[in-house]
Hints:
- This protein has a five-stranded mixed β-barrel. Strands 4-3-8 form a three-stranded antiparallel sheet.
- The N and C termini lie far apart (34 Å).
- It has helices at 56-62, 77-87, 128-131, 142-145, and strands at 2-6, 23-35, 37-40, 45-48, 66-75, 96-104, 110-117, 132-136.
- The protein has one domain: Hypothetical upf0131 protein ytfp, CATH 3.10.490.
- The chain is an alpha+beta fold.
Amino acid sequence: MIKIFVFGTLKGGFPNFESNKGTRFRGDFVTKEALPLMLVGERFSPWLILPDTKLSEEIDKRFQTHPVKGQVFEVNQEALDEMDKLERIHEADGYRRVEIDVFCESSAEIFTVFVYGKPYEQCRELAFEESVRKVLEGEYLLEHAKLYSSRNKP
């Protein structure tokens, strides 16, 4: 089975959970690395800015970073393909699926898992700053999900 870390709308009880066909793996997790997490655009989409070793200094100067809380799910390839479609990983402005390390809070183990995030390059445009609606402190909550508007809604 494939493990995927979800931090936003794909978490249990959140707007896109119906697209998550996985089985919850253990308890709560947190990213090993502190990363920027924010609500972006008129849809208030949660963006996790992916680690980039070449640009980490620039990212740290520009954004607040925190370990990000989330859940890990085990999925099969078909379920992962469905999530890839939702996250538009093949579109220029879509999310990217990459591997990161996460820490299991209940067992203190570290796992390498997939996550959907945005490459820093998508944030380098001057207009990006204006599209950031809220910088989050490491956790996407139900109060943030209430602001979210799905791309698929009429």
